[in-house]
Design a protein that fits this description.
Blueprint: E1 16-20, H1 26-29, E2 37-46, E3 61-67, E4 82-88, H2 97-108, E5 114-118, H3 120-138, H4 144-167, H5 171-186, H6 193-199, H7 204-215, H8 219-237, H9 242-248, H10 254-265, H11 269-283
Antiparallel strand pairs: 1-4, 2-3, 2-4, 3-5
Helix pairs in contact: 2-4, 3-4, 5-7, 6-7, 9-10
């Protein structure tokens, strides 16, 4: 067995897991340890898994989904052609803080998952790196240092593709990207749109206009969505009480948090927790 490859049922002990989507075993899909992994789902010559409203390109093509750890929902990848690459944070170099921050941003920038539509050039570049990564991963005596190096290059390419997607169209798209980056670093502490507008050197009114145009939501709605996403992850995956979670998210008390959560989701935190626990009993995994 290689240092990086693992038996199908021992995901907890792995640092990285790679499979063709058509060969991904149920033992991986249902493994509770899967929640600790960053997942990259690369669909090849397929339609996207989510609704895409665009007339600027064909739907069928190469799509990459970046799914963060402690995900709330699961994407249905059954029968799709492509690749699955999963890895734990521990495989990344902790000393490279800027790189780690970029990774967290591209995996969380749009909520529960981030999606990239690859053009031909980007797909070819990534295929070359992925081939080298796969070849080393599958070696009987694979070198974890080489695996880490290829993984980092692959992720750096994804970061570049993501940045070009957000900044290569127009100045407003760049503003959206900058706002989302600021949000990821500050949403637990700052929920006032004026703060973000000031950092971006635009008025709050103008920032909201741009966000409505590009993301169909106001800045406040996007901030609230990010808080709710984190709340759901903590409710499902952490051992903290609802009260502890509410304080950790910056709410003054549990009732205030519960009212906020229900206004945004239609459920109280306790109702959401019960739903998640029922799902866990029925499906034997933590994904809802």
């Amino acid at each position: 067995m290689t240092p990086t490859a693992i038996p199908e049922t021992q995901l907890e002990s792995a640092m990285i897991f790679m499979r063709n989507l058509s060969q991904c075993p149920p033992s991986y899909l249902n493994d509770p340890g899967r929640k600790d992994f960053f997942e990259i789902v690369w669909l090849k010559n397929e339609d996207p898994l989510h609704d895409v409203k665009s007339e600027s390109f064909e739907m069928r093509g190469d799509w990459i989904y970046l799914i963060p750890p402690y995900r709330v929902h699961q994407l249905n990848k059954a029968g799709k052609n492509g690749e699955l690459l999963s890895f734990k944070r521990e495989i990344l170099e902790e000393g490279d803080k800027e790189f780690l921050l970029d990774i967290f941003k591209i995996f969380n920038v749009q909520g529960e998952f981030s999606c990239l539509r690859l053009d031909k050039d980007a797909s070819e570049d990534l295929n070359g790196i992925y081939h080298l990564l796969t070849k080393e991963y599958l070696k009987e005596n694979s070198d974890i240092k080489i695996v880490k190096a290829f993984l980092k290059v692959f992720l750096l390419k994804l970061i570049k593709v993501k940045e070009e997607e957000f900044t290569g169209h127009d100045i407003h798209q760049k503003r959206v990207y900058e706002f989302l980056m600021l949000l990821e670093s500050n949403y637990l502490m700052v929920r006032n749109i004026d703060f973000y507008a000031g950092k971006l050197d635009v008025s709050s009114k103008r920032l909201n206009q741009i966000l409505k145009e590009k993301l169909h939501k106001t800045g406040t709605q996007i901030i609230h969505d990010r808080i709710i996403l984190e709340a759901k992850r903590l409710i499902i995956h952490s051992e903290h009480t609802i009260k502890q979670i509410s304080y950790g998210l910056g709410f003054s008390d549990r009732p205030y948090f519960s009212r906020f959560f229900k206004k945004q989701t239609g459920q109280t935190p306790d109702e959401f927790l019960k739903q998640a626990q029922n799902h866990l009993r029925v499906k034997s995994n933590t994904l809802v």
